[in-house]
Amino acid sequence: MKLLLLDAEHCLGHALGGLCQSRGDIELTALQDASVSVDTLAHERPDMVLIPPLGRPADVDPGLVLSHAAAVETVLESCLATGVPLLWCVSDQIFEQGSARPIEESAIPAPYDEALRRMVAIGDMIRARLPEHFILRIGPLFGLTGRDAWLAEVLTALERGETLRAAEDGIICPASVDALAMALIGMLLQQQHGARAWGAYHFAGVEPVSPFTFLSVVRHQLETRLHGLSVAIEPGQVLPLHHHHDEPLRRILNCRRALETFGIHQKPWRVEIDRMLELWCTEHHGGGEARS
């Protein structure tokens, strides 16, 4: 199977690149650009074009969101012209208001924010014009390398002694970018071998948690590992923020369809945090034994 990945420096690009190097059934071509022309796509002729998610679209400059949406629209036009299927990963923040119940994969987001509405409109265009597509909505990604590698940013800040602030009244399901890369490969290989199950799917980590609790667990695990390695670093503190005074904003993605269709299981974020912290400490402090 031949995949064409855009925006190669994204953390998902790093994860897919490392995973595909160890396999003989995936040919991965990664482009630095966020979009692809008709000519390039016609020359490459991949089995699928992959677009990584825009990290935290509800928290960044609206211009970046609109630029991302425009790039996806360009890719859509190129796919339509060449008959190449498209997979677009989208942050769960597209569900701006959250939901009291787990968000079903059949749900269509209806954000108030104009830039986020533009992303929804692009999703509608993909569904209406390109039958062979995947729209994969994902929980907050964390990883160690590449752009939007949330965990790497957190660990770097903590080791510098910086104080981090995170919402205590929001509920999310963080997802390991390595687990996402494995899930994508599994889905696409099954699709290539006759699954014929296009559409929207969800992927998120197990165990809903607030961003404050998530970062507090990361800090505690980091402090414990540094102490065990006799590294004289006191990590920075994690303090709670409160944005929603009535009730917590909940973004819990129901990943049932991905499980029932492709057998894709959610990975516990605590297990992935433990594994990545071991890798981090091995690389940065020379201790521990890295596990694959």
UniProtKB/TrEMBL annotation:
Record's keyword terms, sorted: NADP, Oxidoreductase
Main enzyme class: oxidoreductase
One Pfam family hit: RmlD_sub_bind
InterPro entries for the chain: dTDP_dehydrorham_reduct, NAD(P)-bd_dom_sf, RmlD-like-bd
Gene Ontology process terms (BP): dTDP-rhamnose biosynthetic process; O antigen biosynthetic process
Protein's pathway: Carbohydrate biosynthesis; dTDP-L-rhamnose biosynthesis
Domain of life (superkingdom): Bacteria
Catalytic activity: dTDP-beta-L-rhamnose + NADP(+) = dTDP-4-dehydro-beta-L-rhamnose + NADPH + H(+)
EC number: 1.1.1.133
Residue span, RmlD-like substrate binding domain: 69-278
GO molecular function terms attached to this record: dTDP-4-dehydrorhamnose reductase activity
Cofactors, names only: Mg(2+)
Cofactor binding, per record: Binds 1 Mg(2+) ion per monomer.
Family affiliation: Belongs to the dTDP-4-dehydrorhamnose reductase family.
Record-linked PANTHER family: DTDP-4-DEHYDRORHAMNOSE REDUCTASE (PTHR10491), METHIONINE ADENOSYLTRANSFERASE 2 SUBUNIT BETA (PTHR10491:SF4)
Function of the molecule: Catalyzes the reduction of dTDP-6-deoxy-L-lyxo-4-hexulose to yield dTDP-L-rhamnose.
Name the UniProt record assigns to this protein: dTDP-4-dehydrorhamnose reductase
Organism, as annotated: Kushneria sinocarnis
